[in-house]
Design a protein that fits this description.
The protein is mostly helical. The chain contains 2 helices and no strands.
Length: about 45
């Protein structure tokens, strides 16, 4: 995540934190990958 632009990284962290709260048993790596993907897609829109 450290190579992401600041806005995308901030959004990815917010998404990851929400996902961790909603799905506590989900693997962290999967959450990070999904949050990063969603943050990048959100940036484009």
């Amino acid at each position: 995540m450290k190579n992401l632009p600041v806005k995308v990284r901030t959004k990815a962290i917010a998404i990851a934190n929400a996902m961790l709260k909603a799905h506590p048993k989900m693997e962290e790596g999967e959450i990070i990958a999904t949050a990063t993907k969603n943050a990048k897609a959100n940036k484009e829109n």
